[in-house]
Specification:
Layout (H helix, E strand, L loop, with lengths): L14 H8 L20
Length: 42
Amino acid sequence: MSKPITRNTLFYGDNLPILREYFPDESIDLIYLDPPFNSRCS
């Protein structure tokens, strides 16, 4: 069973485990990612 979430909740971490734990199947229409992540550019 999914854990209940509230509005305006920020999730920090790998998206796949978070999606599996907090969101029911077939409930997400779009996920937008904006790389690069942790690129350490100077």
